[in-house]
């Protein structure tokens, strides 16, 4: 049997590297490319026409489920193994709908079992679009019930406020503390930026080690020196935030710059 031509899609380089290493130990697959965001992944997959895609769910710009839905429009869509650190409810949704996935952090045995399922269930590929729709509906219903699109923050009076994601313009670190900035206020957040990357929706993007921005609240992108960028945010101060060189390509792909 020919090797499965495979692409990894994950916005976290350490996670890609870990999976890359595990796949080198599995004879059935051949890794041909990687992508670090959903928009770049769609273009790469359409160009390379792989047999199999390992697809992270939480990514900036376009998440894994949205990418998977787009891929079902291809004449010969690839098999998909989702990569997830989702909560138990989401995992139940995957199990009920027979969606192939592996949990982070990865274990070699689970990766191998997922690949075996791909080989066994290949004839059922045409059912994936229906399964994806069912999963997205279940996750959407659960999100509405739990109101997960709110972030607990601390007011200057010490109260806990539930701040809607849509009101957050950016999040940053200052003096070893983390703050969420709205149009005219700033609130302290208990989570660190790495935790918030996992918690927030795909509308947010970590442009710098000290900043996470709401993509919808970027008013301007300014070319800077040595190929870097700054983004101008829609707060009262029109805050300029630096974009790390490693994040420039993803930002360009998100906004088609």
TrEMBL record:
<dbReference type="GO" id="GO:0003677">
    <property type="term" value="F:DNA binding"/>
</dbReference>
<feature type="domain" description="HTH LytTR-type">
    <location>
        <begin position="151"/>
        <end position="257"/>
    </location>
</feature>
<comment type="function">
    <text>May play the central regulatory role in sporulation. It may be an element of the effector pathway responsible for the activation of sporulation genes in response to nutritional stress. Spo0A may act in concert with spo0H (a sigma factor) to control the expression of some genes that are critical to the sporulation process.</text>
</comment>
<feature type="domain" description="Response regulatory">
    <location>
        <begin position="5"/>
        <end position="119"/>
    </location>
</feature>
<protein>
    <recommendedName>
        <fullName>Stage 0 sporulation protein A homolog</fullName>
    </recommendedName>
</protein>
<feature type="modified residue" description="4-aspartylphosphate">
    <location>
        <position position="56"/>
    </location>
</feature>
<dbReference type="InterPro" id="IPR007492">
    <property type="entry name" value="LytTR_DNA-bd_dom"/>
</dbReference>
<dbReference type="InterPro" id="IPR046947">
    <property type="entry name" value="LytR-like"/>
</dbReference>
<dbReference type="InterPro" id="IPR001789">
    <property type="entry name" value="Sig_transdc_resp-reg_receiver"/>
</dbReference>
<dbReference type="Pfam" id="PF04397">
    <property type="entry name" value="LytTR"/>
</dbReference>
<dbReference type="Pfam" id="PF00072">
    <property type="entry name" value="Response_reg"/>
</dbReference>
<dbReference type="GO" id="GO:0000156">
    <property type="term" value="F:phosphorelay response regulator activity"/>
</dbReference>
<dbReference type="InterPro" id="IPR011006">
    <property type="entry name" value="CheY-like_superfamily"/>
</dbReference>
<keyword id="KW-0597">Phosphoprotein</keyword>
């Amino acid at each position: 049997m020919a090797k499965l031509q495979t692409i990894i899609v994950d916005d976290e380089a350490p996670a890609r590297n870990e999976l890359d290493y595990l796949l080198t130990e599995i004879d059935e697959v051949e890794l041909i490319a990687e992508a670090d965001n959903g928009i770049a992944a769609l273009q790469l997959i359409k160009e390379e026409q792989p047999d199999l895609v390992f697809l992270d769910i939480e990514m900036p710009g376009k998440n894994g489920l949205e990418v998977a839905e787009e891929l079902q429009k291809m004449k010969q869509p690839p098999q998909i193994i989702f990569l997830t650190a989702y909560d138990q409810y989401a995992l139940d949704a995957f199990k009920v709908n027979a969606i192939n996935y592996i949990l982070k952090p990865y274990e070699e045995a689970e990766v191998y079992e997922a690949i075996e399922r791909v080989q066994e269930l290949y004839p059922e590929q045409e059912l994936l679009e229906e399964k994806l729709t069912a999963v997205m509906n279940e996750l959407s219903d659960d999100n509405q019930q739990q109101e997960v699109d709110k972030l607990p923050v601390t007011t200057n009076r010490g109260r806990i406020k539930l701040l809607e994601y849509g009101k957050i313009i950016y999040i940053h670190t200052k003096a070893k503390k983390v703050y969420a900035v709205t149009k005219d206020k700033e609130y302290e957040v208990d989570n660190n930026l790495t935790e918030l990357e996992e918690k927030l929706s795909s509308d947010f993007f970590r442009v710098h080690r000290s900043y996470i921005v709401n993509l919808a609240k970027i008013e301007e992108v300014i070319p800077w020196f040595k190929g870097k960028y700054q983004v101008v945010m829609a707060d009262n101060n029109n805050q300029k935030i630096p974009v790390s060189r490693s994040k420039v390509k993803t930002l360009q792909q998100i906004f088609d710059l």
